[in-house]
Amino acid sequence: MTMDLTRRKFLKTSTVLAASGVVAGPFTGCTTKNINTKTGGDKTLKFTFRPYELQTKHQFTISGYTRTVQTSILTEITYDGITGYGEAPLPPYMEGQTTESALAFMSRVNLGQFGNPFEMDDILTYVDGVEEGNTCAKAGIDIALHDLFGKLTGQPLYQIWGYTKSKTPFTTVTIGIDSEEVVRQKTDEAAPFKRIKVKLGMDEATDKMLITTVRSVTDKPITVDANQGWKDKHYALDMIHWLNERGIVFIEQPLPKYNLDDMAWITERSPLPTLADESCQRLTDIPRLKGVFSGINIKLLKCTGLREANRMISMAEAFDMKLMIGSTLETSCGVSAAAQLTPKMDYADLDGNFLISNDCFTGMKVVDGKITLNDEPGIGIKLINS
Ligand SMILES: [Mg+2]
């Protein structure tokens, strides 16, 4: 299956939504408000949101999907003159979640019923209960509320949680499935990064060409994500052994997400750590993954945001599983929110902002390949041109 989300389709969808009144304002880009200006006064929670069209630097292909644009819904929660920012990216592989469904969900959320943003746990329990699913939309609300909480208390979230700033890992940058020439070019462009993530899961010749091509350009550590693309456990294990001989760090989601018996068989024999991505959506998935994978890949858009991500960290640590945090195509808003958790991570794949050409925030930086957090409160972002 291949899905090409064109600009035309995005515009059509957004126009329909705007006409229906679901969208809170036009999608003309980022606001120009200064995020740290205290205008004072209104001690009620005000929630607004609008879709934003992310443009990719290159056509981006993973096993199953090709994208040149992707919608992300930018969220704002304001209280007492302070605004927290969030983001709900909507990649095509989040089953049942579309721009339309996410906007409809957000329009049903009534945050005005809560007295203040410090009742965060009750607020997010309410949001999670409004309707099942909708994890992307819920993450967009969770991130904005956490950013607001951090700004109101004047502290970065990693500091509020007691995480050590210097313990952030290196992040990978992702090379999608492409021709040899484009893969070479993308590997060159990845110079600021010290780790490369390669998307596999196609036929054997293509998968081996991708690894061989990247290896011909760089000797940096490579991580591999098969995105459920391999169907047979014996073939998958053979590929993992082939990858192990080429300096690969770990293998993410080699088999379809529900094939846990075969996955446990692979993990038992694999020379490389195995990471669950599609198999691990939320907290309640983790117990059945113990012994099936070596670790889990947490993404805010899968697990409803930072509150549940922290609970997943605790559970994975209790099960002695490795921790990774990932992103999709998103702005520095979503990436910087996820970055607050990275002192707890063994691996990070936070390159969503690097892969787009119209980022509208600044925040977390990659310095010498390492995730580098700043001292700004909340998720540590600023609007560009604000
Ligand atoms: Mg993955």
Word description of this protein:
- The radius of gyration is 20 Å and the shape is globular.
- It has about 375 residues and is an alpha/beta fold.
- The chain folds into two domains: about 150 residues, 2-Layer Sandwich (Enolase-like, domain 1); about 220 residues, TIM Barrel (Alpha-Beta Barrel), CATH 3.20.20.
- The strands form four sheets. Strands 5-6-7-8-9-10-11-12 form an eight-stranded parallel β-sheet. Strands 1, 2, 3 and 4 form a four-stranded mixed β-sheet that branches.
- It contains twelve helices and 16 strands.
- Strand 5, helix 6 and strand 6 form a beta-alpha-beta unit.
- About 50% of the residues are buried.
- The N terminus is likely disordered.
- Helix 3 runs antiparallel to helix 4 and helix 6 packs parallel to helix 7.
- The chain binds magnesium ion.
- Magnesium ion binds next to loops.
Q: List the secondary-structure elements in sequence, H or E.
A: EHEEEHHHHEHEHEHEHEEHHEHEEEEE
The gyration radius over C-alpha positions equals: 20 Å
The rough form would be described as: globular
DSSP strand count: 16
| CATH homologous superfamily (4th level) name of the largest domain | Enolase-like C-terminal domain
CATH architecture of the largest domain: Alpha-Beta Barrel
Main sheet summary: 8 strands, parallel
**Average pLDDT:** 90
Named CATH topology of the largest domain: TIM Barrel
The figure for the number of domains is 2
**Number of contiguous helices:** 12
Low-confidence stretches: 1-29, 31-38
Give the % helix: 25-40%
> What is the distance, rounded to the nearest whole angstrom, between the alpha carbons of the first and last residues?
41 Å
The helix/strand class is: alpha/beta
Beta-sheet strand percentage? 15-25%
Instruction: List bound small molecules.
Output: magnesium ion
